[in-house]
Amino acid sequence: MSDDTALSRLRQLEAASAKIPVRDALAQPGRPGVSSIYIHIPFCSHKCHYCDFYSFVDSRDRQRAFTSRLIRELASLAPLAGPVQTIFVGGGTPSLLKAELWQELLASLQETYDLSPFLKGDGEFTVECNPESVSEELLGVLKSGGVNRISMGAQSFNPEHLKTLERLHNPASVPVAVELVRNAGIDRVSVDLIYAIPGQSLQDLEHDLRHALAMPIEHLSCYELTYEPNTAMTKRLGMGEFVRTPEELEIEMFELVGAMATQAGFERYEVSNYAKPGCECRHNLAYWKQDEWIAAGPSASAHIGGHRYKNVPRLESYLTGDDEGFAMIVDHEPPDPVRLVQEKLMTGLRLREGLDVDSLLENLNAANARRVRETATEFENLGQLERTEGRWKLTPSGVLLADGIAGSLLSVIA
Which CATH number belongs to the domain containing residue 351 in this structure? Predict the structure, then answer.
């Protein structure tokens, strides 16, 4: 394919506007307003080698142009929303956005959306932060703008493992940043860790967990390192710079995370996520349960009225492609009941509460539903899946095989 042909096809993809699925969703009579919002801020000080999210180092200082465009997009999407229950700002590194621009963004949200649940203490507003870009000024702005939850990217407390991941922060900055968050009056803090880093031992992971769990946090996300396509990490693996962690050690690490988190008073509510009682991330639960959410910012993905779509993943295109505030989109998928079942299987089975069997399968034809039930029975007989009170739930041994079990159930849907 020539460069001209590739560029032409790219432009065709970008020709669609988010206005199209939004109009369709608004035309559905009696539909409830969307209660969750995701906002993507793409700026980073450095691109970590494992990261496959849209992010970059901006040498052209386009933060103000981006914020103005983002505010305009959020205003265009507001008719979709009802009272907002959860907001999540990810990236990138949202804490790199200048405090005065945060002030403008938060003010616009308060003016444009119904945030009354927050006045009753029922709302959850999360912002992802990196420890090196947190400041008293920024946290003061976030707190005054309604942010009540911070997700802190630690990944590891071992300098050598951070170097492998191409994370630039000093491990000592993490507890300092968490203390700043607490001093600002933001009550809920989550910490992210990665395990199965090349060269990491079980003792190294125990060291990381002890440091994380010693801090005043209520939530822990602990993910196995994945080698996503087109990331620097995957390219380095292919070049032989390091070898993957052996599967046996990965299992030991997974079990260690669960044991130490449980001992510290955290409960696993999703395969890789732990929380003290009542402190689960409600926004992420909306994703995993296939609820609806509005999305704004370049590369942000939305789920509205059964439609799934993704904003164009380039800042320049996002800034210039303004259709009455709506962004250009790629990867649009119209409503599809079978796809929804597949998505629920992939994410819902990872949840502690499992899946309601009857409501899950009601949108499948009889043959597909039968095959899914028969496959589930095979996993029940192996002791990896159980059915209790009409719900499929992974057993402790099944949790280790969550993706494989979900994949097997998906594979029998014709």
Answer: 1.10.10.920
